[in-house]
Specification:
- With about 190 residues, the protein is mainly alpha-helical.
- It has a single domain (about 15-180), classed as Tetracycline Repressor, domain 2.
- The chain has ten helices and no strands.
- It is globular and about 50 Å long.
- The two termini are about 25 Å apart.
- Residues about 1-5 have low confidence and may be disordered.
Length: about 190
Amino acid sequence: MAASTTAPRGSRQTADERRHTIVEAAAAEFSAAGLHGTSTHAIAKRAGISQPYIFQLFGSKQELFLAACSASFQQVRDAFAEAAAANPDNAREAMGTAYVQLLSDRESLLMMLHAFAASSDPVVREATRREFGDIIRLVERLLGTGPEDVRGFIAQGMLLNVSAALDLPGLAGEQAWAARMFEGTGVDCG
């Protein structure tokens, strides 16, 4: 979900393109401040639209947050599926490499972490459970291994999430404990 850009003034977008532009703008804002710390005014400004238009398309700030979260989780599912398809004989390694590459997109990473953090809200919790469950089921299918292997794969990914969110790769050159977190992961700490 790399850095968002607004559509050039005067250009006509389809409804799907407008929704996508707004979701990208929302992800940029929500990834920085979360569901409750982000204003729809800031999202509208970033998207180059009026604030009421957000509510016209999404109904509520929460629904827009869920759309931005869903896009981030979908990015992970797509990366896993593409990696496994490109290297079916070593799907686990290919999926791991694809995930490490995704970690460089801090916006998407933080968006997912904000989804977990906002899960005290029952609607967000249910949507996030569904998204996370979809990832688990996909990993089970693509790896074709047992629950212990799938748990290990997911656990490694969650550790990488936290490490990337804390920018431990940037700290690895200064702190040996941070460098040890990335040994054998393929994360560039240089």
